[in-house]
Amino acid sequence: MDRLARNLDDLxxxxxxxxxxxxxxxxxxxxxxxxxxxxxxxxxxLSVMSAFAEFxxxxxxERQREASPRPAYVAPTAAATVTYDPTGxxxxxxxx
Length: 96
Hints:
Blueprint: H1 8-20, E1 25-27, E2 32-34, H2 40-66, E3 80-84, E4 90-94
Antiparallel strand pairs: 1-2, 3-4
């Protein structure tokens, strides 16, 4: 349900448009289905479930904003540098 629409108004509008064209909308996870002849209880459940989905999405965004900024990838630092002399022999220089 939360993947279908970003907020309550969009979900209600989308379900109303689809059922108006004769499509049966079914949410498998929530075990809810909507047709053109919805009852007051079905409308209430749709509003409550989508309001919780919208609330959950807002909480996720808040947590993401509050997280400390950190780079997406931090390269590991080497303990030493390897160089080669003119004869082709490896020379290991430890980092301080």
